[in-house]
Amino acid sequence: VNDGLQPMYMDLGAVHWMHDSLMECCATNYEWNYEECIGSEPNAPVVINPDTYNKWFPDWLNNDHTCKNDNSQPPYMSKNPSNWMYDTQKECCKERYGYKYNQCVGQ
Question: How far is it, in rounded angstroms, from Cα 8 to Cα 82?
Fold first, then answer.
């Protein structure tokens, strides 16, 4: 599952628990039941959380005062989307970057 809701121990031991693809995850953790883990479509996208998928969030990592919706939000935002995620860029910019709103929305 790629929804950002993994337990903290997985975040802290990401090298052991987090994988780049479903196939890699299944091969590493479910070798004994690989076929069922992969499912009928091995290239299908992983399960997406509708509460966070393509939602807007403040990009704290860059200093450009923007909101993004590229699904790269930190896990803490995915775990509490009602506090961090927005349906529109304008909502996100207004709430998180009101002092630089025009810059945030690209005006």
Answer: 20
